[in-house]
Amino acid sequence: QPAAAEAWTQAVSTVAAYLDRWNITGDPRPLGPDSAAKTIEALGHRRRAQVAIERALQLASQQQASSPAAAPTDEATGRPSVLEAVPEGIGL
Questions:
Q1: What is the CA radius of gyration of the chain?
Q2: SS3 label, residue 80
């Protein structure tokens, strides 16, 4: 399913771009603290990144349903893990 993989990569890249643009690091939450968005521009980017997270999770769930070994899951929640599914060595 190359189209789904490409869509997932695009969604995860959107989240990575948000984190990089607003220098959000060292926080375990996918988008950092709620207080990270201090401007209207940052808030718009955060909303876009949230939609991208939801899309990536949806795609990972669909992939997992069709191939259980394909998408890693978070042990605590049982939901697909977007962060663990990002291959190492990919530069954005």
A1: 14
A2: strand
φ, ψ (nearest 5 deg) of residue 61: -65, -45
* Per-residue b or e along 43-63, where b marks 16 or more CB atoms closer than 10 Å to that residue's CB: eebbeebeebbebbbebbeeb
Rounded to two decimals, the pTM is: 0.69
Across the range 66-86, mean pLDDT stands at 61
Cβ-defined contacts of 25-31 (< 8 Å, 24+) = 30/82, 30/83
Amino acid at 64: Q
Cα distances (Å, whole numbers) of residue 18 to 62, 70, 78, 79, 83 = 25, 26, 26, 22, 14
Tell me: the pLDDT tens digits for 40-74?
999 999 999 999 999 999 999 888 777 655 556 66
